[in-house]
Amino acid sequence: MDTPLCGTIDKKLFWWLMFILGASMLFPEYIAPLFVFALYIYFIIHFKKTGRNAKLGVMGKGIFAYLIFMLVSSLWSKTHLASFLIAMLWLGCFLTYIMVANVVNTKEKLKFAITAVNISAGIIGLIAIVEIVTFHIAKSTGTHLVLPNPLFYDINDKAFEFMPVEIINKPYRTRASATFDNPLILATYLVITTPLCAFGSVYFRHSRNRKISRACLVFAIGGIVCTFSRGAYIAVGMSILIMLISNTRVFKKLFPFVFLLAIAIPLGIALRYSHSNGDFLASTSHRIDIWKYSFDMFLHHPIIGLGCGTDNVHTLLRDTYGIDRSHTHNLFLQMLVEGGIVGFGFAMAVVAIIAKRLFGLYAHKETRYRPFAVMYTASFTGFVVISMFEFTLQSAKEMMIFFILLGLIEATARMETDSLQLADDELFSYEEITEHDLEEDDEEKQKKINKKAEKTAHR
């Protein structure tokens, strides 16, 4: 029996959520969260009407506790307003997690949710490639036909004037930013989404979904290369490696993409070095200084930290240590400086809960959730690796894609533990994920068998 994508009760809500997962990432940073806020109002009203409650789960409760602590930290922050606004933005983007965890409640919805993320990553990666290609063509030919980089640079220039906090708007000619504000934010987004593209490339049952995901994987990898971020290169390499060693039989189909990475990454490093004018190596030394001074800040405020947001860190780095940088260039160090031991403890508790959820999926006795566990582990590992070199949750869309990932983990874990909330018309049509859902179509298998038979006959 074919399982419908979703019942009519949740149909409109689900498709709007697909818009959040995919198309919203194509909008500027200050537009994308507005879709989340608007949809959440409809989501709550709809769930109440259908007799359901939005469940946070243990992971959601842990995240919420951390976010509330960071909101309270605005009381002792030296920049009260900026800290309060950043904490509220965190809480607003957290709504993405709540909706994904509660609405994505069938295997068909999960497949379409992953596909929506993949398509968005592919489009954004393609934009990044076009930005860099047009830049080099224009440079070599002397023309002025260059795609704006970031794509919304001119719009941002006007919009940022009305923001309650200062936001730097800077063009990036030699490193792609696509629809994000800078190359490092784009790199974080693509590092998180590339494993989902890789998963869809080899595991989706329907050939159409696999072909879409493979094209998106190529563009996502190309986009990562065009950011020229060394941290992103290491992170995506780790993600693909995890997927390859987890199941060589299935993920051997990823070897062409590994070959692409093996060629593209050294080329990317060489291109960046040729345009760096000596800054390429100096930036590494500079970052080490930032880490050293940031740890010194923590030592001076070890218990509850400086307070939420980058303004306090930026002010100290500039005025006390003589480095005009806005953050620590390390997510975990940033959390330690902002929240102290208390805030960092909340954050590590969330990481432990995520790890437990992933282990539960991997250790399921029938192994049918193991491929999802591998995908999520690869994505989360890539995020952790790039977070060692960047502050990876500094923008609204970074927060959104991070909470989308956690929402998908939670949604899949609820399927594995039979703790779902289904709409009335899904109660009798619901089917569990099986190994067959991650195989090729019987029709496609038969086509391959027929082709093989034809080749044998011709011989």
Task: Write a brief structural summary.
It is built from 17 helices and no strands.
Strand segment tally: 0
Enumerate how many helices there are, as a single number.
Answer: 17
> What is the end-to-end distance?
40 Å
Mean pLDDT, as a whole number?
Answer: 85
Give helix % range: 55-70%
Succession of helices and strands: HHHHHHHHHHHHHHHHH
Strand content: under 5%
For this entry, what is the oligomeric state of its chains?
Answer: single chain
Secondary structure category? mainly alpha
Indicate the radius of gyration in whole angstroms.
23 Å
Uncertain spans, ≥5 residues at pLDDT below 50?
none
Largest sheet: none
Shape assignment: globular
Question: What topology does this entry show?
Answer:
Elements: H1 11-21, H2 32-49, H3 57-72, H4 80-103, H5 107-141, H6 153-159, H7 183-203, H8 207-227, H9 230-246, H10 248-251, H11 255-275, H12 279-300, H13 311-319, H14 331-362, H15 370-387, H16 396-416, H17 442-458
Helix pairs in contact: 1-2, 1-4, 1-5, 2-4, 3-4, 3-14, 4-16, 5-7, 5-8, 5-16, 7-8, 7-9, 7-15, 7-16, 8-11, 9-11, 9-15, 12-14, 14-15, 14-16
